[in-house]
Amino acid sequence: MTSLKDQAIQNALTGDWQKAVLVNKSLIKENPQDIDALNRLAFALSILGRVKDAKNTYQKVLKIDSLNPLALRNLKRIGDLKKIKNENGDVSSVSKMHVTNMFIEEQGKTKIVELVNVAQPSVINTLRTGQSLTLLVKRLKIFVLSEGNQYIGVLPDNIGKRLIKFIRAGNQYEAYVKLAYDHHIIIFIKEIKRASRFRDQPSFISISERILDPDKKLRKSIVSDEKDYEEESSEENEE
Description:
18% strand; six-stranded antiparallel sheet; Serine Threonine Protein Phosphatase 5, Tetratricopeptide repeat; single chain; alpha+beta
């Protein structure tokens, strides 16, 4: 049976924000101190345009954890959005439209993926939805980096190995943060250029395939993956 927490994550992944609000409220009812659920609820409320409710929810997080980076960052984002108005003066619709348009899926050209062997929560919680990421091929893996070449995770092998073949042939991709909190980073990858050699081959076989199993033990090699990336980067700098 799927737990409420798993449902909340799945709702966020699929963009079912109305249901995300209901599920996270249920989790908070069970445990009013559940910071993860409060942050997820606040984010869902902000996407739905309920900015005041989102702000109040983030402030509840800060009453529990005054230095919570996710709440602090998103409260600032909400403040910045107030400075942006469309011709109708509807601030919230600007945010909602931006998030919706950024993650438009195209058969064979885009994919939503949960990274494995991710960085520590202190790093993950600084990421923001829509943030641009870098895909870096090293050995037989694709490392995912944020600003400043900060390691944040690795693409699962089944996806990474396929993309390496395309990238080495000339395909180009963009990647963005879709959702990030604690031990989870879900990204959106988009093909922006296809090599002539693979003009008839889609980058992704199934757009609906999603990797999302919070209880699956995928972190066993996180230390080695992060160490591999750091050691190789160090060696390259020495050269």
